[in-house]
Amino acid sequence: MLENNTYNLMMQLTEEHKSLWRIKLHYMKDAENSEEARKFWTKMEKDKEEHINELTALIKEHMK
Questions:
Q1: What string of H, E and C letters represents the secondary structure of 28-39?
Q2: CA of 50: how far to CAs of 7, 34, 45, in Å?
Q3: Distance in angstroms (rounded) separating the CA atoms of residues 30 and 25
Q4: Is residue 28 a contact partner of residue 41, using CB atoms and an 8 Å limit?
Q5: Phi, psi (degrees; rounded to nearest 5) at 14
Q6: Residue 15 and residue 1: Cα distance in Å, rounded?
Q7: Model pLDDT, residue 47
Q8: Are 9 and 62 in contact (CB under 8 A)?
């Protein structure tokens, strides 16, 4: 059984992946007529990818 902290990190990783998927699949397409919105979603996409990398590293450390 996982500790709550590890479980929480894994749950947040799942949420970040879901959010990134929505941004790439839907939000960018919906923002095709708005340069400002596309810039925002591009920045958010990079942020989510960084969060995913950080969470993945944390989870690996907690699973040792």
A1: HHHCCCCHHHHH
A2: 19, 25, 9
A3: 9
A4: yes
A5: -60, -45
A6: 21
A7: 98
A8: yes
